[in-house]
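re: ur question from the group chat, yeah i did fold both. here u go
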Amino acid sequence: MQGFLKGLVVAVTACLVAVTFVAFAETNLWWVRMTDFPRLQYAIALVVLLIVLLFARFIGPKTRLALGAVTLAALAYCGIKIGPYFFGDRQVSVSCEADHRLSVMVANVKLENRHAAELLQLVGEREPDMLLALETNEWWDERLGELSDRMPYHAEKITGSYFGMHLFSALPLSETRIVFPLERDTPSILTTVQLRSGEEVRFIGLHPRPPHPSQPSTGRDGQLMWAALDARSSKNPVILAGDFNAVPWERSIERMQRIGKLIDPREVEGFLPTYDAQSWWMSWPLDQVLHQEGLSISSMSVLPSFGSDHYPIEVVLCDQASDRQAPALRSDDLAEAETTLEAARNSRSDQR
């Protein structure tokens, strides 16, 4: 029996350490890229494992010491990745005049969800300046049309798949374009929003295809790099918003931040998971709003569920320079971004 327990503990340790560090691999394999998602779950499991090792007298001291060392190393790595979202600097809400304030709500509605009334009620209660709705189709187009009176500026693209999107705004929009940067059915919305102060902010709405079986992360990472390069070249402060199908501590998001000069509000607002709203254990932040240094964060909130598998989020930004800095560009970032884009373009060509 003791031999079986020892083997079980060794196997669990090996599995947890492996999934913790496998994301170091330079690959677009879907299952490798998705191992970055449940970092919080890994950390909890590793803590439990350390407690087990502390009392596992049926394992020799040298073996326990070795298992404890690799478990601690894995836990430390998880801490480096997700620690800032639990123990980072928390800031007092920025004081911002109404004319300089911009509130953005992001809601992945889930294509099959029919609880539109609850979302419309939430929008009516929160009164955001902008709403980006994702996974929309003809049914959702008809229901969301009720927002047109209060939010008369809008753009939408129905794709017939899970990547339709609608943007509604109470503030004037200009130079609005709907583009397909890399994949045929994953659009992005680019626009310029004019604040009540008259200042302009560039807005990019994203919903790249997620990594999943038979589908690598190539297209997703390419679209993230495309958005980062677009943000980097903008003359106005930029907001990137959407369901990125990536977590903030992934290397693709970290590189996107460095290239696009983008700040993550979660580093001051907290972990704030948005997926899965229908699961007690799958909990990680897929829906994001990033901003450049010309804007500052006033608040970020996860809003009540309305039947989707994603919680909606609301971010309130202020048109004043942030006291935080975007992460510095690394020497290989731009070259890596071009490599990622080329791989995504080749992948798209292969699918034709």
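okk and heres the other one u asked abt
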Amino acid sequence: MTMKTQALVLLAGLLLSLPVTARTPADEVPLLMPGTRFPFKLWETEQLAAGLYAFRHSFYRTIFLVTDDGVIVADPLNDEAAAVMRKEISAITDQPVKYVAYSHSHWDHASGGQIFKAEGAQVVAQAGCAANMRENPHPNVVPPDVTFDDYHQISLGDHSLEMFYFGPSHDNCLAVIVANPANMLFLVDVSNPPDGWAMFYNPALSEERPWHMVKFLTRVTELIDERGIETIIGGHMGGSFDPVTNRPTIVKATSAPATIVRDRLAFWTAIIELPRAELAAGTPPEEVPDRIVEKGLLADRISGYDPKKMHILMRRLTSLAITGE
């Protein structure tokens, strides 16, 4: 997104974050957000498979599983979103929420769980997330009751969420989550539908662990192949770019073919290699970002390519090539 579009999106998000009582039933009024091509409500619940639902609140998305023995919720998102999601769940089933599964520790996905904790839900997260929450607490983030290292399965009846930790990626504790029996992968922030080659919204990579992204995405693609997973559910509204104007749009993109993860692996492999190749050719480190941008490397491949963003990205990845971090 351009800075102008990002500012409009942030402004819209602030307006929409007002309490529901302060809006004239905005929860029922179609809203046309900046950059979108279609009107949509502030929130939306979609059934993706038997017992599996996606819940979107503004540009954020999570999932929940409904069974005869209770409900499993993934990221609660925030206090307002969680309260709305609880009402949406109540419209589907009278079963209690028994588990909340954090995909990672970032506050914009892990806040709001208290409403579920109050009805007796257990909160589950990778062990590193628990450490993050102790070291950097937030009043709206409920610490996990159950932690795991590499793998954990939450089961109710014939449904389950399997949580896999493949090392640092977008967070140091992000887990990829498989919803069964639908066999769909919930992958938050790492590769968002519909495009695995989209430019980062923040090219400084302040939230990423670049040194491990190729290994991480390799493990995810191996899991996809091993399980025969065909569908990825994203943690946000999707970003896309008009092929004619190259202007950003925002699309619904609840899910996408699992091939976008392989595309993201190719993306990371390619962008990491660019500064390494320039350094190997004898380009001084301080000149590497300029050279890559001047040559327009990957400009025809990266969706939403922006030379200024590419320069920032290459500064970060030149440092990776030199220091290993």
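fwiw on the second one: The two ends are 27 Å apart (CA to CA). Residues 42-177 form a domain with the Metallo-beta-lactamase; Chain A fold (CATH 3.60.15.10). idk if thats what u expected
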